[in-house]
Design goal:
about 45% helix, 6 helices, alpha/beta, five-stranded parallel sheet, Rossmann fold
Length: about 150
Amino acid sequence: MDGDKVMDLYERNQKQRIFFNEKIASYDQVHEIYMETKKSLTDYLDKNITKILDLGAGIGFELIHLFEIYPNASVTVIDISENMLKELSKRDFANRVTMICGDFFEKDFGNNYDAVISTSALHHFKPEEKLILYKKIFDCLKSGGLF
């Protein structure tokens, strides 16, 4: 990517951060209607997973059900909104979540994940940007890991 495209992505991501920081009060209400979709994430995961990366976890709606099904899982979340992560930190399961505030394109994802999940974040990116993210996702999964 040339410098202009990188700057455009950075600026857009910062606008997203501001947008989501300001939407914290209405986030539950807006996303509650997607709860069944968020629950369905667990339908396709191997029953032995223990290490999960959640991209764009927001306040952790999808993690409520996930921790019911996978009580021994540890989850790393990356979200651009510090206000969303502040709300997630109030959840009963927050002690089992490593929270990283930042941009998907700038943060290291780590490695050796059994699964990477994302329910409401990747649609914000252009196809060519998604290719970059998909490569990062592939690289952070262990062999046989799921996205």
